[in-house]
């Protein structure tokens, strides 16, 4: 905050002695400001003091001398911290103001100087009356100065700062609203090239961030980042305030990372904060705060990546921050609290009780120093409570649990009702009651306390959606585990609690993040667990339709968001064209932003990146999109606009046969067969368990990895051979695959088929069944399940799904709600784009010459085709061709990227056509995609229900049917499969009517399976991977 000095103007050639002393004081003070020499400052103080004593009381210059003495004492106080100076400064300021009339041009500056002194004392001693008086003084000063005055922006800024401090002390959001108004006005009155413009921008940004912290409104956080961006960009590197602006911008980015989970925000925050630390000497009073901010961001990166180096660096920086902060400093409690938090986290890694004990000590000391009404006190209490609860779990001392409950209760009581962290703190308070409820020290009211805390948390609208979803889950789990303890019926039933959790799913996975950010967020795994538990509860209650609706709401969430952005708006366009146009524009902007690339930090990159980057615009579009949906749903006839599909709507997915949804849960496993009429048949799967499914997936994937069928890189020299994704060194032991397929038959498929086969009278045509599994079953070949004899000629009959039905898969039911492709016998044949890449430079060590043969086979079997071979198969050419052809055949390398599933790709001549790139396209006229490449339907085992693979990507950009592969395929097998597949497809085209690619693939696989030699029935790894997705 600015203080204002006053200079002397001698009115005679021979000024009196007091004026000479006044001038000497000014010269000494100016010299001190230049050199920082305390002896010179002492000279200035002595000179001013003598001048004040010699000047007559009615001398008009006496007030100016008093003011300048106060400023000199303030400078000494900042260096030495002598309390006596502080009291004298305030006394002198009050005296100067009492002697100055309101019409004096110096009045506003003297009011401001006194206000700064009072704020300084408030920060040291916490006297609320100082804060009130300072705000009053700045308000008075602002009324004395017109908008055109050079000091007006500074006055408004300082008044805004004092109201922010008062908000932090009292929690009154009216102060914060007024502060934002004042800071905004200060920015508006200040020219862009004014040296104080960055400071006003930074303060306005901080006010918006504080409002975000209280109310959780993302618009405030976006605004804060934009304002702090401008502050950084307007400030040259050598300017003294640059480190503060850098670290403050980092704080806002870190806050957005915590809310939305985009790693790019965190990386940018660390770069900015590291630069701020680098630019600041250890003797600078702000160095501890800069170190602490960097430590907090490193701590968050450790939480995301688990890199121990980040945590150790965070603790080292925070320890230094504590050591550099004097015991009486107002920030000491913050530094101690932060160090306690990092030691608690290290305990989780090391298991060292010494870390946990130290954390508790630091938290306790922090609370002893914090002012009673400080806005951070509820959070500090919450942190102490968490560490005490952890020590109770480790040591078993019930006093730790009782103390944890006491501090948690205090935290909830002190936290404002509309605080954005309230749901998180309430949720933990409820969990503490559950811990005691499960212990030998339970209290009679524990179940009631827990229920009340969870209920308030789940209904707290300004808190983070993930915290609310988890509170809903805890509420439901409490009802399930302790239903016998409820004397009166709970406010919400079990299914009502789960319904509330499901309603929060769209809010948890936010559209404002790019696709990569959504897939890597913690929210996605939390959603998966909640949806799985909710569906299981619905099944137990006999609400099978509800279970299907909930499973659909939690499956392929990111894909569903992408599809929602492409929904036709015909009805809205008819009745509300302006809203439809705006929604279409915003949706298109979000689609373009979806495949944004992350910011990458390197050690050499210490120049902060531009903060006005693409993610900011995508966030603002996402906020507008949410508001548009809310507005549209308030219109008559549009209540259900873009809401999740109901069971009756989802039944439309069954036009070609039943869809089997399989829920795999730790407590039970069930199949739900959805029929065309909307009926749901429940089939318990008692032989299947989550542990069995996980073990079978591991068993299969270990085999595939051992045989290089799940290789990570197509162009890896170690993968030479004839496999399109890896080398097979020898034939796999058939018994291993035989066991996998037999287990799937006995545990899953046979019980289902025993029921499904009764739904339709026997026919010459096999029935069609679509699998929609969850959990580990997503990665297992249900379409090939069966009992396969070792020697068919021995007369032992096989029992397989392929003998009973034609199988397809779908990532979601909604993916099947598309019109089926139709052809007429005399109509135009589908336009087919054929892409072959036998020797892509991006897979130079792993040529696949069979793709040339394959392309020739396909070309001979379709009448309307265009071929992009070798160098013609560039990314741009392929994308352009896909836009003008109904069918596409891709014979090339494909790869599933397990580290970043959105980077899974087709390897073309000039690079990788990634899943992220595909997601930004929409091909409404597309029909069939044949992905004769490897691992195009493998998926990511961390995200089983999200279908993060190339086959799902093709479905979701518009293709109705997709042929893919669950693992790497053989270069000699693929042409044979495609010869039969396209022969059958050509017959279907010639006959007219609905095209049925699933049946064509079934015939192709059956032919490969029954062939003699390589590729026969026992060669499971070569014929099993081919799968059909979609219609």
Protein described:
The chain has about 1050 residues and is of the alpha/beta class. It has 40 helices and 18 strands. The strands form 5 sheets. The protein has a 6-stranded mixed beta sheet, with helices on both faces. A hairpin with a 5-residue loop joins strand 2 (about 670-675) and strand 3 (about 680-685).
Through-space gap between termini: 67 Å
The shape, in one word, is elongated
Strand order in the sheet with the most strands: 10-9-11-15-16-18
Instruction: Find the structural class using helix and strand composition.
Output: alpha/beta
Radius of gyration: 35 Å
* Helix count, DSSP H or I runs of 4 or more residues: 40
Uncertain spans? 596-616, 712-731
Sheet with most strands? 6 strands, mixed
Provide the residue-averaged pLDDT. Answer: 85
Q: What is the β-strand count?
A: 18
Fraction of residues in H or I helices:
55-70%
Name the beta content range. 5-15%
What keywords describe this structure?
alpha/beta, 5-stranded mixed beta sheet, 1031 residues
Task: List the topology elements.
Layout: H1 17-35, H2 38-54, H3 62-80, H4 83-98, H5 107-125, H6 128-144, H7 152-170, H8 173-188, H9 197-215, H10 218-234, H11 242-260, H12 263-278, H13 287-305, H14 308-324, H15 332-350, H16 353-369, H17 377-395, H18 398-414, H19 422-438, H20 446-458, H21 465-481, H22 494-503, H23 505-508, H24 515-519, H25 522-540, H26 544-554, H27 557-565, H28 570-575, H29 577-593, H30 614-633, H31 647-650, E1 659-664, E2 669-674, E3 680-684, H32 690-706, H33 734-756, E4 768-773, E5 786-787, E6 799-800, E7 806-809, E8 822-823, E9 832-836, H34 850-861, E10 865-869, H35 875-884, E11 887-891, E12 893-895, E13 905-908, E14 911-914, H36 915-918, E15 928-932, H37 950-956, E16 961-965, H38 973-991, E17 993-994, H39 997-1010, H40 1020-1023, E18 1026-1030
Parallel strand pairs: 1-4, 4-7, 9-10, 9-11, 11-15, 15-16
Antiparallel strand pairs: 1-2, 2-3, 5-6, 8-17, 12-13, 13-14, 16-18
Helix pairs in contact: 1-2, 2-3, 3-4, 4-5, 5-6, 6-7, 7-8, 7-9, 8-9, 9-10, 9-11, 10-11, 10-30, 11-12, 11-13, 12-13, 13-14, 14-15, 15-16, 16-17, 17-18, 18-19, 19-20, 19-21, 20-21, 21-22, 21-25, 22-25, 25-26, 29-30, 32-33, 34-38, 38-39
